[in-house]
Specification:
Length: 347
């Protein structure tokens, strides 16, 4: 028999929970149900709200568990509880949508009730959705590399660069093989400037370790290196939030760590079963992330220096409109030199 629906009191807000026994992570058995996922989010929701407050969020939903249909939902349903708030965002196409805005733990538990495994926040806070307050770095292992290589790049190459620039980054596991590093920044720049700043930082890391790091958008050029996905700073590109569960058989979690913890971490150690006790047993390594809104001027100076070297913009994702100064979105192996002029424009 199905377990009857219940009402959860989430910070004074009643959130309806249905089908708590439904398998979401089948390999975990009774520890991988919808109810267990909700229990996890109840344990970390307060921490999540601090980081997600007023952010528009997309929902990666698996209403029938991670082996069922995946729904990546950018718009909040027209029929939704009155306690939820929304925020209007503009996509690269120019279209707009009302996205879920996180203001209270009840929004996170409602999302879990709707089958959300992972919350994907924008790098802005409402109502100012045009000026990011985060610069995000995605260290993405390519075939032949893994978490250990990403950790080495993060701690031994990226961290020293940030130190030299007087910038503070906050690392977390991606929940998979990668590492995410967030920098809290002032909201003085638009998406284009923040993305270019991220490119400059990624290029500097690549210069210092060209055999270990790549900024190439084209997979055929990456090799067995860590790809720094600079396009994660473009409009409407989102990361798994800190403390979000991920679509993995063991229900791993994207977990904030200290830089020292990154060195020796195993991402499989951080799951919905282990993270609540883990985070309660030590100081919060991201506690100071909102203390200072950092300037990206040092990175914009690096952008100017790169341009003097002839290094301009890099390709945007294929779904984006053509951007000013962007090089051709053509795989190098398919680019016939006679069809392009010296400025990179198609003849």
């Amino acid at each position: 028999m199905r377990t009857p629906a219940t009402e959860l009191d989430v910070g004074g807000v009643q959130v309806r929970l249905t089908s708590p026994d439904k398998p979401y992570f089948p390999k975990l058995g009774a520890n991988g149900t919808k109810g267990k996922l909700v229990e996890y989010y109840l344990a970390v929701a307060e921490r999540m709200v601090v980081l997600l407050r007023d952010r528009p969020v997309h929902l990666q939903r698996f209403p029938d568990g991670i082996e069922g249909e995946e729904i990546y939902q950018k718009r909040i349903p027209q029929k939704h509880p009155d306690f939820l708030q929304t925020c209007t965002v503009t996509f690269p196409s120019g279209r707009t949508a009302d996205a879920l805005k996180i203001t209270h733990p009840s929004a996170i538990i409602w999302a879990a009730q709707m089958g959300t495994v992972t919350l994907h926040p924008w790098q802005v806070r409402c109502p100012d959705t045009e000026h990011p307050d985060e610069l995000r770095l995605d260290l993405d292992p390519q075939p032949g590399t893994g978490f250990a290589e990403a950790a080495h790049v993060a701690t031994e190459i990226l961290k020293p660069v940030l130190d030299e620039l007087g910038l503070v980054g906050y690392p977390k596991t991606s929940g998979g093989r990668g590492i995410h590093v967030f920098l809290r920044i002032a909201t003085d720049w638009d998406f284009i400037a923040v993305r270019r700043a991220g490119i400059a930082l990624a290029r500097e890391v690549e210069r210092r370790a060209p055999d270990a790091v790549t900024t190439s958008w084209w997979k055929e050029e990456r090799g067995a290196r860590i790809f720094i996905d600079y396009n994660q700073n473009a409009r409407d590109r989102t990361f798994a939030s800190a403390y979000s569960a991920r679509k993995t058989p063991i229900a791993t979690v994207s977990t904030p760590l200290t830089w020292q913890e990154v060195r020796d971490a195993d991402p499989d150690d951080y799951t919905i079963a282990t993270v609540p006790d883990f985070v309660d047993g030590r100081p919060d390594p991201w506690a100071g992330i909102d203390d200072v809104a950092q300037s990206i001027e040092p990175l914009l100076e690096m952008v100017a220096a790169d341009e003097e070297r002839g290094l301009g913009d890099l390709p945007y994702p294929p779904s984006y409109p053509k951007m000013p100064g962007e090089p051709p979105r053509v795989q190098p192996s398919r680019k016939v030199a006679s069809n392009w002029d010296d400025a990179g424009k198609r003849l």
